[in-house]
Amino acid sequence: MANRTVKDARSIHGTNPQYLVEKIIRTRIYESKYWKEECFGLTAELVVDKAMELKFIGGVYGGNIKPTPFLCLILKMLQIQPEKDIVVEFIRNEDFKYVRLLGAIYMRLTGTSIDCFKYLEPLYNDYRKIKRQKADGEFDILHVDEFIDELLHEERACDIILPRIQKRHVLEETEQLEQRVSALDEDLDEVESSSEEEELEEPRKPDPTPLPDQERRRYRDLDRPRRTPSPRFRRSKSPVRRRSRSPKRRSPSPRRERYRSKSPRRHRSRSRSRERRHRSKSPGYHRSHRHRSHSRSPDRFKRKNKRSHKGE
Fold this sequence. Notes:
Elements: H1 23-31, H2 33-38, H3 44-52, E1 57-58, E2 60-61, E3 66-67, H4 69-80, H5 84-92, H6 97-110, H7 113-120, E4 129-133, E5 139-143, H8 144-153, E6 156-157, E7 160-161, H9 168-173, H10 184-201, H11 212-223, H12 231-237, H13 254-260, H14 264-281, H15 285-294, H16 298-311
Parallel strand pairs: 1-4
Antiparallel strand pairs: 2-3, 4-5, 6-7
Helix pairs in contact: 3-4, 5-6, 6-8
């Protein structure tokens, strides 16, 4: 009897309100400790007190599929089916964010498409942080506006399959809803108007950022020392006396050819001067030369033999 829907409850989307939660999850909620101890005999007024004690949102978690207190209170509201004015007060409550989220998800499950957009879209301006328990039992942080966006655009929230609603642009075309005005539009209009006034008042200044060629030239000038170019450099850079770069190699001039040709006499004198410098630099040259001078060479033996033959 405690798990039955109230007698005067009306059907939602053509079915019992509690059937919006899947049977397996619904059975786990009925068997949970929180449902038996905290949710027994609750009325629409007492649900508010239980919602104020919530610390996080979520669906089921763990290997044995345990429901969170937030999910248990959702099923309790589907069971007792509070009036629409009470649900709207839940949504407009700014002091307790989890009470607001409880009313928002109940409105998404039971309300029409127009009611969902009408009462849930103003919650996009709520940026408070909330805690959510995931399926593995861990917690993560998100914001109220993110959860509202999931309710309006996702197919599942807190392990509950959400009923389908019409798209907003369809309701706007049929004039059932007015075009949504974001709270950021006013700020954007102010920024644009202020920028236009500044452009009209102050003339546009040239862009101080240099071109790539100018930037490259500036760095090159800073790296190289500042000096006047040599006459040769100046002559090569002048546009009038620019030399043509032909792929063919020019033949050397006769003057250069004359200086390149080396006479044997000049070559011999250069080799002798190099040998003299080498003798003066090497410290052991005199000893080796003296030793070689006193050593008996075959020419010396020949000269001695000739003298001996002449004496005989």
